[in-house]
Amino acid sequence: MRDAWWSSPFISMADKVIFIKNKVRFNLTDAKKLSGWIESVAKKEKFKIAGLSYVFCNDSFLLNMNKEFLKHDYLTDIITFDLSEERGVLSGEIYISVDRVKENASLFKVPFQTELRRVIIHGVLHLMGYKDKGVVNARKMREKEDSCLSLLK
């Protein structure tokens, strides 16, 4: 993990997927189920998971990371760091702004948990090589997110 960027306790740790809260208040419903879903998506896409860390944070925290690590001075809902050392094996850190997810859920008129799950899988898809810059890539990413969300039962 990025040194000094996180300090809060685990929400849940299941096999190869870890969920951490960093000074945010929200409920992650059914972390074990989400972990299984993430692993099933990876398997379907022919990837293995070595380790994924999800850090749920606020806008300020993620803006600082965006500035420091990516040299971007704007809010975002997610930043994904690919730590994979082997092709076909996923390893990474995925930082999610709960503030952005809440705002986007309101903007898109969907429940918070639905938008959160979309962002959770969005990070995994980035690690798999899916892009979202440009109209065509953004459409493909949205279609893949929708397909993955349909697998969550």
SSE blueprint:
Blueprint: E1 10-14, E2 17-21, H1 31-44, E3 48-57, H2 59-70, E4 78-82, E5 89-97, H3 98-108, H4 112-127, H5 135-151
Parallel strand pairs: 2-3, 3-5
Antiparallel strand pairs: 1-2, 4-5
What is the structure about, briefly put?
With 153 residues, the chain is α/β, with parallel strands linked by helices. The chain has a single domain (10-151), classed as 3-Layer(aba) Sandwich (Collagenase (Catalytic Domain)), CATH 3.40.390. The protein has helices at 31-44, 59-70, 98-108, 112-127, 135-151; strands at 10-14, 17-21, 48-57, 78-82, 89-97.
Shape: globular
The CATH architecture term is 3-Layer(aba) Sandwich
Q: Find the count of extended strands (DSSP E, 2+ residues).
A: 5
Q: Write down the Rg.
A: 14 Å
| Proportion of beta-strand residues | 15-25%
Mean pLDDT: 90
Q: How are strands sequenced across the largest beta sheet?
A: 1-2-3-5-4
Secondary structure category: alpha/beta
CATH superfamily: Metalloproteases ("zincins"), catalytic domain
- How far apart lie the N and C ends? 30 Å
Discrete helix count: 5
CATH class annotation: Alpha Beta
Low-confidence stretches: 1-10
Order of helices and strands: EEHEHEEHHH
Helix percentage range: 40-55%
